[in-house]
Amino acid sequence: PAPAGLLGDPDPEEAVSDDSSRHGGRVRGFPHERGNWATHVYLPYIAQEEFLELLELLVSRARTYVPSLAAMEEFHLSLSQCVVLRYHWIEPFVRSLRERLAAFHRFFCVADQVKVYTNQNKTRTFIGLEVSAGHFQLLELVSEVDGVLEEFDLPTFYKDPSFHISLAWCVGDLSGRLEGPCLRELQDIVDGFEDSAFLLRIQWEQIRCKSGNKYFSFPLR
User: Fold this and answer.
1) How far apart are CA 79 and CA 20, in angstroms?
2) Fold adopted by 35-213
3) What is the DSSP pairing of strand 107-118 with strand 83-86?
4) Is 76 one of the catalytic residues?
5) Is residue 87 within 8 Å of 2, Cβ to Cβ?
6) Domain-wise residue ranges, the chain
7) d(CA 144, CA 102)
8) How far apart are CA 45 and CA 142, in angstroms?
9) Between 16 and 88, whose confidence is greater?
10) pTM of the entire structure?
11) Which of 7, 210, 212 shows the shortest CA–CA distance to 97?
12) Which residues touch 124 (CB under 8 Å, ≥6 apart)?
């Protein structure tokens, strides 16, 4: 049976297209199957004007090394991998998350170290800001999220994760072009940006779960 309380209803007849040209050449991490919902738990970050100014400087410099680089349109810090939920699992999954995360309070992180990442199958490269302070609280959150994932026999988060906010991306493994001189130049921009110490000290106020086109929020106390 379909769970109650979800925003919107699935369209069982909706046509599915995996045409990568429609989404910037990105390739699915796993094939789409009807009834499977890509699900992700994360901390959302609402970018301020100063952050977008810093982002513009970083992407402009990085494009001198990789012209195809595109700035992210939304920002977050992941607490889970992208996993697959069956539709009828969504409601109990969200309920379990809500119970496990209810006791957590708001906290701060510092995300000020520029780093280059690739996804697992090396089809995309990212520039991100890695967390340099706040690991303990993030690991506590991941431990609870992992507990929910284990209940549903789903993959848990990475061992020894590098917590970060992705800033920009491109198709393919172009990490070799972005590391070295480019990375050092980007770090210099971050270190020299006015008020960067204040700007990149981030207070997290809620956790979010996205499953397909549905969003669920869990406010921190």
Assistant:
1) 26
2) Cyclic Phosphodiesterase; Chain: A, (3.90.1140)
3) unpaired
4) yes
5) yes
6) 35-213
7) 11
8) 17
9) 88
10) 0.86
11) 210
12) 26, 27, 118, 169, 170, 171, 172
Active site residue 88: no
Count of residues for the chain? Answer: 221
Residue owning tokens 């499977």: 36
Residue where the block lists tokens 């960067």: 196
Q: What distance in Å separates the CA atoms of residue 79 and residue 65, rounded to the nearest whole number?
A: 30
State the average pLDDT over residues 67-89: 97
Predicted local confidence at residue 31, as pLDDT: 56
Residue 33 scores a pLDDT above 80: no
Tokens 């770090």 found at: 187
Whether 127 and 119 have beta carbons less than 8 Å apart is answered as: no
Nearest to 216 by CA among 1, 34, 84, 42: 42
d(C-alpha 84, C-alpha 82), whole Å: 7
* Catalytic residue (one of 40, 76, 88, 135): 76
Q: Which residue has the tokens 């119970």?
A: 99
The DSSP string of the chain is: -PPTT-SS---TT------GGGGTT---SS---TTEEEEEEEEEE---HHHHHHHHHHHHHHTTT-TT-EE-SSEEEESS--EEEEGGGHHHHHHHHHHHHTTPPPEEEEEEEEEEEE-TTSSEEEEEEEEEE-HHHHHHHHHHHHHHHHHTT---PPSS---EEEEEEEES--HHHHTTHHHHHHHHHHHHSTTHHHHTEEEE-EEEEEETTEEEEEE--
